[in-house]
Amino acid sequence: MKSVFKFILNTIPRPFLIRLSYVIRPVLAFALKGNKFTDPIDGRSFKSFLPYGYGTQRNNVLSPSTLSLERHRLLWLYLKNETDFFTAPKKVLHFAPEQAFYKLFRNQKNLEYTTTDLFSPLADVKADICDLPFQDNSYDIILCNHVLEHIPDDTKAMQELYRVLKPGGMGIFQIPQDLNRATTFSDDTITDQKERAKIFGQYDHVRIYGRDYFDKLRSIGFTVIEEDYTKKIMPELVEKYCLAKGEIIPVCYK
Questions:
Q1: What would the pLDDT profile of 11-22 be if each residue is shown by its tens digit?
Q2: Residue 191 DSSP code
Q3: Which pTM does this prediction carry?
Q4: Which of 82, 90, 127, 226 could form a disulfide with 140 if both were Cys (CB 3.0 to 4.6 A apart)?
Q5: What is the end-to-end Cα distance of the chain in Å, rounded?
Q6: CATH 3.40.50.150 domain residues, the chain
Q7: What are the residues facing 92 on neighbouring strands?
Q8: Cβ-count burial of 107 within 10 angstroms (0-12 exposed, 13-18 middle, 19+ buried)?
Q9: Which residues contact 206 (CB under 8 A, 6 or more apart)?
Q10: Is the per-residue pLDDT at 2 higher than 60?
């Protein structure tokens, strides 16, 4: 079952995979039902999660029920436990909406929820992150996770995120990050897709962010909290929820 699902994830185009997942998720959730690991997003428990990753596969990463990864579950816990995201009226802009969140956020009565992306079939507004069709100071919350590593001009993208966020608003801009690197690395001369995937984690990533990512956000104008949230969660729950210990959530305020 795991090897079949791994093949599906790594070979089928994303728009079709999104549609296919509505069919296969119930089958996977039933087949892996157990009590060792729990997805905090929907509260369902399993004997194992599924492997996931480009190149090197990580075990017990992908939830069979929500298809969430470590970063999604960590963000869910942060929003639920540390913010009023699920209770206060908020105008929310969500880039490249993750399937693990899409329906749940859409159904939140307190949220005025807009999704945007150039390619995602879940996007309400087709838009370039470097040239957004939204007015200044429009949104209370912006979620833009695992997007900036795909954008050649990430400075312009960050400026647009800052522009459309309301004063006092919060943005969460997660990225794949190598915390062992002091500085971000990019190299446009590497054009072979396999080589790019090996170096950057995916063929369509244009950089590997280092610890300087947070200061770059600050240079745009954001106040940035480097939230090491797994330190605030009991170790047994970090394991039970299959979180990535030490992952930093970049919480940005205007």
A1: 444 444 445 455
A2: -
A3: 0.88
A4: 90
A5: 46
A6: 71-253
A7: 113, 141
A8: exposed
A9: 149, 150, 151, 152, 186, 188, 200
A10: no
User: β-pairing, 90-95 with 139-143?
Assistant: parallel
Q: Would you state the pLDDT for residue 25? A: 63
- Could you tell me the two tokens for 2? 């795991």
Contact 102, 122 (CB under 8 A): yes
Q: Write the CB contacts of 76 (distance below 8 Å, at least 6 apart in sequence).
A: 40, 41, 68, 100, 101
Distances in Å between the Cα of 63 and the Cα atoms of 3, 28, 47, 78 are 15, 9, 11, 18
Q: Is the dihedral of CA 98, 104, 109, 110 positive or negative?
A: negative
136 residue type, one letter? D
- Give the C-alpha distances (Å, rounded to integers) separating 182 from 149, 179, 208: 16, 7, 11
CB half-sphere exposure, 236, CA atoms < 13 A: 1
User: What's the angle, vertex CA 251, arms to CA 247 and CA 254, rounded to 5?
Assistant: 160
SS3 150: helix
Q: What whole-number distance in Å separates Cα of residue 212 and Cα of residue 80?
A: 28
- Overall CATH class of domain 71-253: alpha beta
DSSP state of 161: H
User: Torsion-angle region of residue 178: left (phi > 0), alpha (psi -120 to 50) or beta?
Assistant: beta
Q: Does residue 186 carry a pLDDT above 60?
A: yes
Which alpha helices (H) appear in 32-147, and where do they start and end? Answer: 70-82, 99-106
Please, what's the b/e burial string for 132-169 (b: 16 or more CB within 10 A of its CB; e: otherwise)?
bebeeebbbbbbbbbbbbbbeebeebbebbbbbbeeeb
For residue range 72-130, list pLDDT tens digits in order: 999 999 999 999 999 999 999 999 999 899 999 999 999 999 999 998 888 999 999 99
